[in-house]
C-alpha cells in the first residue's frame, strides 16, 4: 500500500509539472500585440529648405492629409537626401519625399548600379509605359530597412538632374505612424499629379502665391 501511495504521488507530481511546462510553452509562443498605428499626434513631413520641388510636394501631401482630418506638419531641413533618410530611420520624422532612383541608390548602391547599366542599354525607353518605373520601385521596396516602407510611386518624375535611372516621386514613411487611410491619401495625391503639373506648381510657388492655397486648388481640380 505504501508503494502504491508513493507511485500515485509521483504520478501526480509529474502530471502537475508537465501541465506547468505546457502552460509556460504556450505563454512563450503567444504572439506579441502589433505596434499600434498612427500614435503620433502630428504626422511630420521632412522637406528640404532649398528645394522648391520638395516644398511643393510636401505641401501637397500635407494639405491632402489635413483635409482628410490627419494633423500634419512640415519640418524644414538643411540636409540633403542622405540626411533626411537617416533622420527618418532614426525616428525624428515620419515621412520623406524623394525620387525613386536616388533613394534606391542610397539604400542599395550595387543594385542601383546594375539597373543603371541595364537602363543605359535600352535603345529607346518609353517613360510613360511604367515598366522601368515599376522595376526601380520594386527594387527600392526590397531594399528598404524593415522599419520603413514606400507608398505607390507617382507618374510624376522629379530630380531632373538625375537621369541614369527613372526618378518617379515616392514618399517613404515609418511603418508604425502611417495607417492605411493615410497611405491611401498619399496614393491618391501621387496618382493625381503629372510631371508637367508638378513643374507648373513649382513655377507658381515662385510667384509668391500661397503654397497651401495652390495645393488645395490643385487637389480640388482633381476631385479630391
From TrEMBL:
Keyword Signal in record: yes
Keywords recorded for this protein, A-Z: Signal
Stored PROSITE patterns: PROKAR_LIPOPROTEIN
Signal peptide positions on this chain: 1-28
Keyword Signal carried by entry: yes
Protein name: ABC-type glycine betaine transport system substrate-binding domain-containing protein
Taxonomic lineage of the native organism: Bacteria, Bacillati, Actinomycetota, Actinomycetes, Mycobacteriales
Amino acid at each position: 500500500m505504501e508503494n502504491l501511495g508513493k507511485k500515485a504521488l509521483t504520478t501526480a507530481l509529474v502530471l502537475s509539472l508537465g501541465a506547468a511546462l505546457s502552460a509556460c510553452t504556450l505563454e512563450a509562443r503567444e504572439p506579441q500585440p502589433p505596434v499600434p498605428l498612427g500614435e503620433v499626434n502630428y504626422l511630420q513631413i521632412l522637406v528640404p529648405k532649398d528645394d522648391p520641388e520638395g516644398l511643393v510636394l510636401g505641401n501637397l501631401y500635407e494639405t491632402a492629409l489635413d483635409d482628410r482630418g490627419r494633423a500634419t506638419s512640415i519640418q524644414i531641413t538643411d540636409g540633403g537626401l542622405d540626411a533626411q533618410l537617416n533622420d527618418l530611420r532614426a525616428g525624428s520624422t515620419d515621412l520623406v519625399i524623394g525620387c525613386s532612383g536616388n533613394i534606391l541608390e542610397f539604400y542599395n548602391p550595387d543594385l542601383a548600379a546594375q539597373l543603371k547599366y541595364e537602363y543605359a542599354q535600352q535603345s529607346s525607353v518609353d517613360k510613360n509605359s511604367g515598366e522601368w518605373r515599376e522595376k526601380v520601385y520594386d527594387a527600392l521596396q526590397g531594399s528598404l530597412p524593415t522599419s520603413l516602407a514606400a507608398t505607390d510611386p507617382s507618374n510624376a518624375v522629379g530630380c531632373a538632374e538625375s537621369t541614369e535611372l527613372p526618378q518617379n516621386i515616392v514618399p517613404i514613411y515609418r511603418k508604425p505612424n502611417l495607417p492605411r487611410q493615410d497611405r491611401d491619401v498619399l496614393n491618391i495625391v501621387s496618382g493625381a499629379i503629372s510631371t508637367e503639373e508638378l513643374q507648373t506648381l513649382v513655377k507658381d510657388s515662385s510667384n509668391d502665391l500661397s503654397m497651401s492655397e495652390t495645393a488645395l486648388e490643385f487637389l480640388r481640380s482633381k476631385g479630391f
